[in-house]
Write a structure and sequence with these properties.
It is built from 11 helices and no strands. By secondary structure, it is mainly α.
């Protein structure tokens, strides 16, 4: 493995965790005590993550195949392992804590899609698959694909949702410690994913128009959560997105 990206792979190995080991017994006891508004807020956010994490976990194969070298491919493999774990974690929350109906993950998602905006579903179940398909057909489009996946979907949309769910869990009338622990671990994983993507985009030497397009896409996607995420959380994610793009090339800002 070359030294270009191996630090991310080493970091990923050090951050491994087992979603099946998280104890949801206290959460299961607390869930019925939540107010109706609390229940709707948490379930809506969980629904969004179930949809998003299931989608992102299924499309990293095209990214790995398009990698420029072995170290980059190893990063995509490590990330895929993380994303599959995230999808399993949020599905566990849906099934075991929120008692979402459905015999399996796919069946539960049929119900959960009704709880999130069409914009969020379209981003993860239409735009991302279309981008992965184009990448599989033309591996030269890796930078554009990473810009959408890592910088926008993970770096803006999921980051806004992760901050929102942690803020929401802090304010609940009954605590959900297992959900909170898993959400914290997911956010920890996502930080290295975004760092890896940012480095890849920075090394691609994007032009001004490409940077501006990523900035605009992040702004447009930030509102995909609708009322589930506060304007403050959305604004925070957009500001961080702009700051990351500043590291891509200072001359554009």
């Amino acid at each position: 493995m070359s030294a270009r990206y191996d630090t991310f792979v080493i970091l990923a190995e050090s951050l491994q965790w087992d979603e099946a080991a998280i104890d949801f017994a206290p959460d299961q006891e607390a869930w019925p005590a939540l107010a109706d508004t609390e229940n709707a807020q948490v379930l809506g956010l969980i629904a969004g993550f179930c949809i998003a994490e299931s989608a992102v976990s299924g499309h990293l194969g095209a990214f790995q195949a398009a990698a420029y070298d072995d170290s980059m491919a190893a990063c995509f493999r490590a990330q895929a392992r993380d994303e599959h774990r995230h999808a399993r974690f949020f599905d566990r929350v849906a099934a075991e804590v929120a008692a979402v109906p459905g015999a399996d993950m796919a069946a539960r998602q049929d119900y959960l899609r009704t709880l999130v905006s069409p914009e969020l579903v379209a981003l993860f179940e239409e735009r991302l698959p279309a981008t992965a398909l184009r990448l599989a057909e033309d591996r030269g489009g890796l930078t554009v694909a990473v810009g959408l996946y890592h910088m926008v979907l993970e770096g803006v949309v999921l980051l806004a949702g992760q901050n929102a769910i942690l803020d929401t869990l802090d304010r609940l009338s009954a605590g959900l410690p297992g959900v909170r622990r898993g959400a914290e671990l997911v956010l920890r994983d996502e930080r290295w994913h975004i760092g890896f993507g940012t480095r890849l985009v920075r090394e691609a030497g994007l032009g001004h128009d490409e940077v501006e397009a990523l900035l605009a896409l992040g702004h447009a996607a930030a509102g995909a959560w609708g009322d589930l995420v506060s304007p403050d959380a959305v604004g925070r994610a957009v500001r961080i997105h702009r700051s990351r793009l500043r590291t891509v090339d200072m001359k554009f800002f």
